[in-house]
Design a protein that fits this description.
Elements: H1 6-23, H2 41-58, H3 70-79, H4 107-129, H5 140-143, H6 148-151, H7 165-168, H8 171-177, E1 187-190, H9 191-194, H10 196-199, H11 209-212, E2 215-217, E3 223-226, H12 233-244, H13 246-256, H14 258-265, H15 282-304, E4 311-313, H16 315-318, H17 324-332, H18 334-339, E5 344-348, H19 356-368, E6 374-378, H20 379-405, H21 409-443, H22 458-471, H23 481-503, H24 511-528, H25 539-568, H26 577-608
Parallel strand pairs: 3-4, 3-5, 5-6
Antiparallel strand pairs: 1-2, 1-4
Helix pairs in contact: 1-4, 2-3, 12-20, 13-15, 15-24, 19-22, 19-23, 20-21, 20-24, 21-23, 21-26, 22-23, 24-25, 25-26
Length: about 625
């Protein structure tokens, strides 16, 4: 067709699914069941074409409006696929041998077929179409493993039988990945309810009818939260707030800081003259508390204001925990929940790859979605980030206060920063070991070694895995469950290491994380320095100060963290005194290189503005 990107290709797949469904419609009958063979073929052809063109426009294919567009020609080709122009390749059993009839297609019929068939087609095609903008090529051996429904040269028929496309789609795949016949089971919980009261719902797996009522029937899920109940509540809450709240909370915090900064510049708030030039103190003292307040209570505040937020899947609230009948249906439809989720948020912990349910969830999601839709967040990484932000901000806060009132802030700050650096470098080294442990576990993965909370659930999971492997063509359709489980093991060993490597940051602190830490370290003091505007400090001094802040936040902090982690990740087999030698060396080198650049920059700026020593941070 000529594609303009993966999103456009998805629309193509959806339209082709509709075309196949319409060709599979019951021939020669309208919505009321009356015979239509006596109708003029050209008239039926034109009506069919108009319906399909309208459907194409409804789903966003603007290119199809033109009569000479590729989609218009494709619609014509499928609607008039028989020699007579409007004949369907699936004749009624009551028709005489060789006879065909014209098929009229209504918009309701298209919608009805698309609800069932389109979802199944999207599930199957999504894995191959969404990874790259171009269609992948297959060898003859690979093509032999593709389900017959996808090997046909004509949508709607298999070329040598009257079996419709709807019949050829794997029934197991449809049952596993769609909510056909039970749409009420597709439920989602608002993120504001999951994070309410600091994620108290994440405390235990015990659920009730009240927790089930926290979810509601939805059409799609914004995210599927995959976690282990063996992990305590607070690490999971911090990981979710890190993913959903940190960026918004940081942005709001710095916007709010403009208020006291402007008040200080206008002389409304007090300024202190003990420093080299007048400075305020309000932004330095208020920035961190406001940020933490927003991070931990932002979703509660949003719910009070009526903001609903995204709908996510949480097993405790979206699957009934008391009604065993509804619970069993929800468990069997776990693959359908994964299929209907736009992304997966993995709260990774040490036990994640040891649990049967979580491994099944992540492997099934990757079979239905591209790797880019999976976000892996280590609970240790989130806890380390918040700890680093708090400790470094408090250190800068204490140094600023002591510098104003006692003039000994630099010495105290240097000592505290070195102690924090040792702790952070040790955490970086532990993080490197965690990544190696992930790859080792995945390379030796065996589904039968995974732990299942309830042994009664193990046959269900094994059956779902076997159905998925058969439907995706990894094993023959008549393969036994044992062969399907072995194919699943091999898939996990080859696919998940790449997925985790792509979804997890190469460094303990990503570049965005270092920007956050650096911003909370130096920006509050920069806002407080606006007090000098009310006392005649030249504007170019603030320009120099702003340049210094930008260089430190955008370059020096990230460079320092990167150097420290690269060195701390060396010789991971060393333990004891040798390990502390590596940690100390990484800290010293990681601080020296950026500090040297910083000093050179400060000397340059001091030469340009001799009276701005304090502004340059020296």
């Amino acid at each position: 067709f000529g594609s303009s990107g993966p999103k456009f290709l998805f629309k193509q797949a959806r339209l082709l699914a509709m075309l196949g469904c319409c060709c599979a419609a019951d021939p020669c009958r309208n919505d009321h069941g009356s015979d239509m063979c006596e109708r003029d073929p050209n008239e039926v052809h034109e009506e069919n074409r108009e319906v399909l063109m309208d459907v194409a426009n409804d789903i966003g294919l603007e290119e199809s409006k033109s009569a000479c567009s590729p989609f218009a020609r494709q619609i014509d080709a499928h609607v008039s696929s028989s020699p007579e122009g409007v004949r369907c390749k699936a004749p009624r059993e009551s028709d005489a041998p060789g006879s065909t009839g014209g098929t009229h297609i209504s918009r309701n019929e298209v919608a009805t077929h698309t609800t069932v068939e389109g979802s199944a087609y999207t599930v199957i095609a999504g894995a191959s179409l969404s990874n790259d903008s171009a269609l992948p090529t297959r060898t003859a051996d690979e093509s032999s493993q593709i389900p017959a429904a996808l090997q046909s040269d004509r949508l709607g028929t298999d070329g040598n039988s009257s079996t419709t496309r709807l019949d050829r789609v794997s029934t197991a795949m449809v049952h596993l990945t769609t909510f056909e016949g039970c749409p009420e089971l597709l439920r989602g919980t608002l993120l504001t309810k999951v994070l309410k009261h600091q994620g108290c719902i994440l405390g235990s797996s015990a659920g009730s009818a009240a927790t089930y009522d926290l979810s509601q029937i939805v059409l799609r899920l914004d995210a599927f939260i995959s976690h282990n109940w063996a992990v305590p509540r607070w690490p999971k809450f911090l990981a979710l707030t890190y993913h959903y709240n940190v960026k918004i909370a940081a942005g709001i915090t710095f916007v709010v800081m403009l208020v006291p900064a402007s008040a200080t510049a206008a002389g409304v708030l007090p300024a202190f003259h003990n420093a080299a030039f007048p400075v305020g103190i309000c932004c330095t003292l208020l920035c961190l508390p406001i940020f933490l307040l927003l991070v931990f209570f932002m979703r509660d505040i949003a719910s009070w204001l009526g903001y609903k937020g995204p709908a996510v899947f949480l097993d405790k609230t979206c699957i009934h925990q008391e009604d065993t009948s509804i619970q069993r249906q929800g468990i069997e439809k776990l693959g359908a929940f994964l299929s209907c989720a736009d992304e997966m948020v993995v709260l990774y912990s040490e036990v994640y790859l040891l649990r049967l349910w979580t491994v099944y969830e992540v492997a099934s999601f990757l079979a239905l979605h591209p790797i880019s839709h999976m976000k892996v967040i280590s609970v240790k990484q989130a806890k380390l980030l918040f700890t680093s932000v708090v400790c470094i901000s408090v250190s800068y806060m204490a140094a600023s206060v002591l510098y104003i009132f006692v003039d000994i802030g630099n010495e105290v700050f240097f000592l505290v920063l070195m102690l924090l650096g040792l702790g952070m470098t040790s955490s970086m080294r532990a993080r490197a070991r965690e990544r190696l442990d992930i790859y080792k576990r995945l390379s030796d993965f065996a589904v039968k070694d995974c732990v299942c909370f309830l042994d009664s659930d193990r046959p269900i999971v094994y059956g779902n895995i076997a159905d998925l492997m058969r439907a995706k063509g990894f094993v023959p359709k008549d393969a036994r469950e044992e062969a399907a489980l072995q194919a699943f093991d091999e898939t996990v060993r080859t696919t998940l290491p790449v997925a985790f490597a792509s979804s997890m940051s190469r460094f303990t602190f990503s570049y965005k994380d270092t920007l956050l830490i650096g911003a909370f370290a130096v920006l509050p003091n920069f806002f407080d320095s606006w007090a000098g505007l009310a006392h005649g400090i030249p504007m170019h001094h603030f320009a120099i100060k702003g340049l210094d802040v930008l260089v430190r936040v955008l370059a020096l902090f990230p460079l320092s963290f990167a150097v420290m982690e690269c060195l701390a990740s060396c010789c991971l087999q060393w333990r004891g005194p040798r390990e502390w030698l590596v940690v100390t060396l990484a800290l010293v080198v990681g601080c020296m290189i950026p500090s040297y650049v910083w000093v050179m920059l400060s000397i340059f700026l001091r030469e340009k503005a001799p009276r701005s020593d304090a502004l340059c941070g020296v």
